[in-house]
Please model this.
Amino acid sequence: MTKIAKLSILLSFLGLWLISFIKNEIQIIVGFILILSFGICHGANDLLLIKKIYSEESKSYWKILFKYLIIVLVAAVLFILIPSLAMVLFIVVSSYHFGEQHWENKIIYFNKIMITSFYTIYGLFILLLLFQFHTKEVIAILYEITHINLAFVNFTLLLIVDGLLLIALCLYSCYFSKEFQKNLVIELLYLLVFAIIFKVGSLIWAFTIYFIFWHSIPSLVNQIKFLYGTVTFPNFKCYIKSAFAYWLISIIGIFVLYFLLKGYKIFDSIFFSFLAAITFPHVFVIERMFNTKQKKTE
Model:
């Protein structure tokens, strides 16, 4: 078990312990504060990552920056015009992103299609596990965004089907890799930890614990290593300093939307659409970062 995984488990159970002392309203406030700080910050250095990636590959920084902005625009338009399609794409892309962050460098013997499938199926299992324990709240949020009542969706069945696919891929992995066999027990332990978190915590609090401690902080560590070579406090300060302007612009944009639209139910959907729109290109950048790191080791 890595040091970052041990820290994530410790912080996760600390978060669950705090539930006994914090009211649900406070949980929501603290959850949003963490998401708006660490959550957005871990994606605020995309432009610096792009510069690093494409300077090493001798490709045009401005060309890829243009593509980045186009992805943001297309995602935002999709959420406005075809929210149901945008939501499906967002869940699939987020699933891949969560799986990639967790399994990067752990299943190198797969071909590209198998790796992509594994990442997506694993990440989707995490999301469906969360949905399973908070079905009513999830359906209400999805209805507000897509205007489609998804009460007919059987999240339990989806979780079982996805779980069976994940088991099949894990068995396939165990057959070809002794290293995967050694890590399987600890990976099952992680899933048990996630299930406890999602069961005990409220929707926002449970998602916050997973998103911050199991995704955002490990992602920050990977990005700092990629940009500066090692994870040290001075390098962490450099990362925060370079990300601050983009983070601040995002926060200001969110608060402007809030004050313009507070009191309207539409604010929640626009807020979520905004976060989703900046998630799509972030996933693309992180995928390129991992590919660049892998090429260096080959």
Notes: Residues 266-297 form the longest helix (32 residues). The chain is about 85% helix and 0% strand.
